[in-house]
Amino acid sequence: VPGSLERLFNPRSVAVVGASSQPEKAGNVILRQLIGGTFRIYPVNPNRHDLLGLLCYPSVSALPERVDVAILSVTAAATLQAVEECVQAKIPYVISVAGGFSEMGEEGSVVQKRIAEAVQGSETRLLGPNTMGVMVPARKFDTFFLPRERSPRPKDGSISIISQSGSVLVGMYEMAEDHGVGLRSCIGVGNKADLNENDFLEYLAHEHGTKCIGMYIESFADGAAFFDLAKEVSKKKPIVAVKVGTTSSGARAAASHTGAIATSSDALVSGVFKQAGVLRVADDFELLDAAKALAHIGQVNGDRIAIVGSAGGFGVIATDYIASKSKGFGLRMASLGEDTKARLREKVPPFASVENPVDLTGVVNDQMYHEVIELVQSAENVDAILLNLLFQPPGMTVGVVDVVERWARKGKKPMVVCCVGGTFPRSILRRLEEKGVPTYGTMRRAVFALRCLYDRGQYLRRIKEEGAA
Amino acid sequence: VPGSLERLFNPRSVAVVGASSQPEKAGNVILRQLIGGTFRIYPVNPNRHDLLGLLCYPSVSALPERVDVAILSVTAAATLQAVEECVQAKIPYVISVAGGFSEMGEEGSVVQKRIAEAVQGSETRLLGPNTMGVMVPARKFDTFFLPRERSPRPKDGSISIISQSGSVLVGMYEMAEDHGVGLRSCIGVGNKADLNENDFLEYLAHEHGTKCIGMYIESFADGAAFFDLAKEVSKKKPIVAVKVGTTSSGARAAASHTGAIATSSDALVSGVFKQAGVLRVADDFELLDAAKALAHIGQVNGDRIAIVGSAGGFGVIATDYIASKSKGFGLRMASLGEDTKARLREKVPPFASVENPVDLTGVVNDQMYHEVIELVQSAENVDAILLNLLFQPPGMTVGVVDVVERWARKGKKPMVVCCVGGTFPRSILRRLEEKGVPTYGTMRRAVFALRCLYDRGQYLRRIKEEGAA
The pTM is what? Predict the structure, then answer.
């Protein structure tokens, strides 16, 4: 497929232009991180014979093959010439890391325009400048100039993220790694001199490993094209997006960050997103929270939520978040049938509550969770389950991870897990997350995720009805 | 001071009625956890000669002294008699741990009423039943029946929390411990047969170590008394409160949890809180986030916030949260004077931004933070600083902890710190927190804390003006 970007994400060979021997330089960090990947690597540096055990080449034209990707780790001043050499060598993808272009004002914009002109009409597509580039954990392909020791990378997963901010992207993948969430790919679009968010959205729509697309947007390269494209993509894959600069102060801050002028009003953005089926979220945290639910569960078809837990107080907090329209997320508490309640009563102690929120109290144990989840999974009036695990009760062990995973796999009702606390609860959440169960450290976040799943379900229903009409 | 509750929080001697040799029993866990405290401990169990190296007593009347506190770890059925024995022995404070009373319906309510009557008019005050009791880290006094191995305790600090839910309280102290936040005391009020939230609010108002009072409330024991009391207390110490059951579903859930009937409308609660100077927050997380800012910083006198960081994207996210009234927290971005900007330009590289948000870019290092914070600290148009630390830039080291701490101590402008990411950023936040700097893992939470500090400042100004008028 021409222009499919496939080789940018799955290169057979990579050149690092500006490869360096100095460990703190980007040209060294990038090279170090590429080693171990499943592609050939060529450092380009006219002043070195070899680097990190790899033979150096004086220029891209001197390389023994036409590489799929050239990563330019040279100064802003040297970038234009480096791009021109890549165009001449017909290298299909160039990633330009250096900052100092449109984000720096008039002068930088002029140079950036010349870079854009250099690739226009050529066989070369450019990502950047002013970008971290691309990260594909499954292929150990990673152009981010941050040492892994300082910035641990996530494992492979089914979420891909397109970001107009490198730091926000780094924050998100570090969080993902920390929580055991896998990412399929990370893309920093930088200043978008050539390739922009729309190109990557199109690519990810067809990339089989991506089940949910997350976007952090400061400005649109082409808002109308985004709308048309997103509308099509979101029919197949959920798109979650942060659009910042919602206030005039924020828009000014965005302008001084990437030189992007936010021309669209915030209400317009919200309207367009809604119509295109793009789920708008407030920040990087909400993006990850929503994306992991959508990637793993996909959708929830109704708004009736059952809470299962062992702590009355958290049940009340969650209930408010579920039921409140103004301060919460405007869902409904499932009303458990008499039949379900009768069967629950057989499984739980007399002082437990079999009303929703189901409160198993401090005598709860792994087996009780198993039996209660089984019953609530088969209850008629329930669309999704919020499981609130607490590990203070002495009967609770890490064995509950297997119980939850089993039901998350074979159960018909979507289930998200909340677990509040410190190091130990966090380790449990991580284990569940690694098994594909969306987990949250607060009730608010768990209910927020359910709302996102419900919105996705409603959207899919709507376009299905429209299609049938 | 009669009724000051001082000895409940600082007992010279404690009895554990129902002390047990079985490690999983509450009567064993509590006893184990008391050992190591600075008070005398007496296990009461008629069937044992000794327990955990301590001599056992057959009943409270057989104790060698009148203890300050008796902790009743006996069944619901045995509780009334145990309370009566404590009343007879004139023990000033009794903590009744067992559940199975008003939260269980009619029958339990009857017994609970008899317990309340047993202490009425006596020299004994009762906390509970259905409570975890009290935790005072500074005195290693802790009646919570959760082993420390499973549920690590926080260090001493200046926040005290009154909670109507044991689990929510446990969640909060575990979070506090995990984040390096100290707590002065934790109180689970349980079913409030005798002592209630108002008694503890009054005590904490005069407790010198408590600088901020947090409350989790499902229902008011006496709403009018709470209003009058809170109004007085909040003049001296900030009160942050969660009042759940804001929806009818939530109110029903609360009723089935502690048997409490929420008679007050949610809007009424908000109005009363506002008038009384009580800062209403949504959940346990917001409570801790607000409380640590209020305990350490106290107040912010204006709404002009300066952001200092090294990542443009996070600067934009923070700006939106600061400036947006509908989606954010309705503060203002400080406008830095030309003088300040000129001086900043001397300290930072040419491609850094000296507009607010100040963006030091990836070349930032500890020393640059020191110099820039110094300048922003002395800027005229700034009321508070939001510092966004990121550790990807190679020049950043843990040394920045000392820089930030120094300015947090000697600087005139209040400062909160945000740091997004995984294990390493979390460890930095913890170190800062331990030094008394309020830290947050997301921009939203950091700006929320600033808004709480601003609201507190506005409240104090208002009552000062009212006092002068």
Answer: 0.94
